[in-house]
Design brief:
Oligomer: single chain
Strand order of the largest sheet: 1-4
Largest sheet: 2 strands, antiparallel
Strand content: 5-15%
Shape: elongated
Number of strands: 6
CATH class: Mainly Alpha
Mean pLDDT: 81
Structural class: alpha+beta
Number of domains: 1
Radius of gyration: 16 Å
Distance between the termini: 20 Å
Order of helices and strands: EEEEHEHHHE
Helix content: 10-25%
CATH topology: DNA polymerase, domain 1
């Protein structure tokens, strides 16, 4: 799958650098990516981004399917140890799924409320 990565990811012993890359479908699913849209034809005039234009929305992490590595790589402020705790806690949840951000608050040292926009429960 072709994806425009906003940061560097490690996946199954491989490193995928930020930018437009071909990545495995399983990795894309784990970090909650969707296929990149087809590129638009180039325009002769390029418009530079100004400071008052909004930044792109951060990519979301599918917290119910992501690996510990994908969680740690995709969520700022979440280290690998905390991400492993997320995966372990997920396994104890009914249906092995989180349904709310409050369930993640059992894992300390992470401001889960601040990460709400980056987490999907799909």
């Amino acid at each position: 799958m072709k994806a425009n990565l906003d940061r560097t990811y490690g996946w199954m012993g491989q490193t995928y650098l930020a930018g437009e890359r071909d990545i495995p479908e399983a990795m894309a699913k784990a970090i909650g990516l969707v296929p990149s849209p087809l590129p638009e034809p180039e325009k002769e005039e390029t418009v530079s981004k100004t400071e008052d234009q909004e930044e792109e929305e951060p990519q979301t992490i599918a917290i119910n399917t992501a690996t510990a590595e994908a969680i740690a790589d995709g969520l700022s402020g979440v280290g690998l140890n905390s991400a492993k705790q997320v995966v372990n806690l997920r396994e104890t949840m009914p249906g092995k799924r989180f349904t709310s951000i409050e369930q993640l608050s059992q894992i300390s040292r992470v401001d889960w409320q601040a990460l709400t926009a980056q987490i999907s429960f799909d």
